[in-house]
Write a structure and sequence with these properties.
Elements (H helix, E strand, L loop, with lengths): L5 H7 L4 H6 L3 E2 L6 H10 L5 E2 L9 H9 L5 H15 L5
Parallel strand pairs: 1-2
């Protein structure tokens, strides 16, 4: 893969690519299981995680069960399922 020169990267990511990736939103579809969820939460703040599902391949119930087994605080689960998305789409409230 060809890398862009630093001056080109600075044009669209003045704080760096890693900074831009960490401010994106990520959903839990196919990431609710232990290792992927641990990697995701190690990389981005919990404020950037949204509930998602691979329904019909993985049921909503299975995804909720897996997320529930990650030992997260109730406030984090509420953020994933509601609070975080309302920050970006307040019309859903």
């Amino acid at each position: 893969m060809k890398q862009l020169p630093p001056d080109r990267v600075a044009q669209f990511a003045p704080n760096g690519i890693d900074f831009e990736f960490r401010r994106q939103f990520y959903e839990t579809a196919d990431a609710a299981y232990g290792p992927p969820m641990a990697a995701l939460l190690n990389y981005v703040p919990k404020s950037q995680v949204l509930f998602g599902t691979d329904y019909p391949y993985v049921s909503i119930e299975d995804n909720l069960k897996e997320i529930g087994q990650r030992g997260l605080a109730a406030a984090d689960l509420t953020a994933f399922q509601r609070t975080n998305v309302l920050r970006i789409i307040p019309q859903l409230a």
